[in-house]
Give the backbone structure.
Amino acid sequence: MLRATLKSVLSRKLRLVLSGLAVVLGVMFVSGAFVLTDTLGRSFDSLFASVFAGTDVQVRAKPAVAGVDSGERPTNLPADLVAKVRSAPGVASATGVAAADGARVIGRNGKVVTSFGPPRLGANWTGTSELVQLREGRGPQAADEIAVNAALAKAAGITVGDRVGVLTLQPKKTFTLVGIFGYSGDRDSIGGAMEVDFTEPVAQELMLGAPGTYSSIDVTAASGQSPEKVRDAVRAAVGDGYVVKTGKQLQDETVGDFRQGLSFFNNILLGFAGVALFVGVFLILNTFSIIVAQRTRELALMRAVGASRRQMIGAVLVEATIIGLVASVVGLAAGIGVGAGLAWLFGHLGGADLPLASIGVPAAAVIGAFAVGLLVTLVAALLPALRASRIPPVAALQEVATPDRPLTKITVAGSLVAAVGAAILGYGLSGRAHGSTLALILSGVLVCFIGVALLTPVLARPVVSLLGLLFSWSVPGKLGRLNSGRNPRRTAITAAALMVGLALITGVNVVLASAKTTMHKQGDTLVKADLIVSGDQMAEMPPTFDAAVLDQIRRMSGVRAVAGEYYDRAMVNGKGWGVSVVTDLPALADMFPLRATEGTIATLGPDQLVLDEARAKTLNLHAGSTVTVQLSRGAPHTMTVAAVLARNDVFNSIMLSPSVIPDLRVPQPSWAYVRVAPGTGVAAVRDRIDTLLADSPEVNVTDRSGYIDQQARQLDGLLMMIQILLALAVLIAVLGIVNTLALSVLERTRELGLLRAIGLRRVQMMRMVTVESVVISVFGALLGLAVGSGLGAAAVRALRDEGFTELSLPWSRMAVYLVLAGLVGVVAAVLPAIRAARINVLGAIAHE
């Protein structure tokens, strides 16, 4: 039996390739994700080993603000601490470093050089070392001089001698570029970081906000002293108010942070790999179902000569195992290539200069590839294997394969599964699942898809028949319509594969379209600000502009009111929050629907704050309560709650008094909201404000509609990324259509030969197969659009408390997807149609 199975597999190589291709693509994603994260992880290990190679011990202050998103706000170190560290036993040298993220250079084109991830550091020039090497010019010596690393010089298009604008904690200042430096190993940057070096006093003022302070102290151990021993000595010298760590500890922590981010990215890739493999299950299930149907007589003969049912199941599962093994090997090899390619792309993205470690294949990639490849193939082949075991020996005497079975059982099962999936999804979206929310939502979506897939056969015949009417104006069209509906199970499984990918894409589209519609409606009905000054948030902190601009706008003729907003992160009663400082609360309340449920909205006095009722409930605060607020700088503030604001869909925050502005990390506003006086042209005021922002190229002024469009564009980027990642699932669905049609053509060889014999021309044969393909593809697309719209609508309804008040269906995108599905059907039919047209008439008639 085993020899017969192996000969059967080897005699149908095309079937082997088509069956395994879906598994290859899914396994490629799984193994590629592990190869990518392993390679990048080892690359960062090597990178930060070189960064901290010259640092035996480092001293930092304990962070003033921590636990807010991923950011923390370290406290500056006093300059006299350097001498105390230098005098500790075992210390050879101690160097004060004044460095922080947030130095933005204005390039030759007048725009700020952006960074997609790596920091834009501003630091004090400490001279050359084993790591830092001058390439041109010299280090800065005067207050108006800077040096930059080679990566930043190339990105900004600047050379030694140029006058360069730099944005820091203060508004734009202009410096002379006197030096360009690189790093050991001929590197232009360290992991893509862009660095500007000032003289020490300038770095302290612009990057740390206080003269005579440092962000850290780097210590070199004396000869013969271990870093651990020197660390303990320094810790004893400076006391418990500081964090003292060895260079190895810093390296491990930094790499650990990067690995944590990589694991999140890895999980995303594995999630999309799961979708691809889920779609692949439909393809393999359909393939083996068709194969079993085609070999009914062959399998029945085996049963007649003594093969048991267990042997029949084993024969199909052995074939599936072979396909799974071959696909896993090919998928693993492809995954290694994809992982290496993505690692290279990641290492060079956005001008990054990450030296990549050698490409490695971790055990997780190998185990994952074979476990996933074999498991998916065997699970998909199980039902066809059971079906093969039920073929009676008498079927060997029949001319026709097994007849179509009633759809009652599968319809009842599909209804029950879909109901269970809807219940799980509904509970997950209700907000009552707490820590299990994401798991329940994903499980609910998966079960819903299975339920809908089980229900598709009952829908296939009437819907496909209706769709086929569009092509029934010719004989090939009528035949294609009848063929697509003759086996509803096969049509349904083929269409279900396409349904999954399109349903996910459509669901995301519905949520994002609803978010955009909600933003526009709220902006039009609730926001009364005529102009908004802001910038795109490309880094941890939003872009800022000179606070003097607020006063200049306020003095403009035609301006009725202006409110500036600063942003920072703070500890409020020991808990991390994002906070705002508003310069004119009554003006802001007039431009946004702010209403007090406790206290009154008035100009905030020193050390006063207001907050929305949701945050007040979390912090257990009321009007008149006192609260401790620790900002990025300075001592903790004891502040009084002046008012509690009713929750609204536009503006919710903890808003602090302007008296705390000096203690913010960046004491400059990030937003300004302007109300124009009646009878004044908004465009004229906008042009005048625009001239005030000439030295702030990161921000611009737009009207209300333009600001909303600017925010909505960020959603378009998210949608594009999701569509690209889900394209693999759609590709597998297309392969499923090709596979089904190819096997169907093989199955109907004699029938097609008879059609050719009675006068059907080759072109008509190709049109018939194409119609069949297009009908199946459009049927799958319609299912996907319907299911995706339902899932998206459910998600929007569940997010109502998060501000999603409008449900919007992206009709134009849905129409595009439907048209593309038709084109997919045409493309998928090319090879099977050509094969059908080339059938030898006499050979086909004699075919059994």
About this structure: Residues 399-403 have pLDDT under 50 and may be disordered. The radius of gyration is 33 Å.
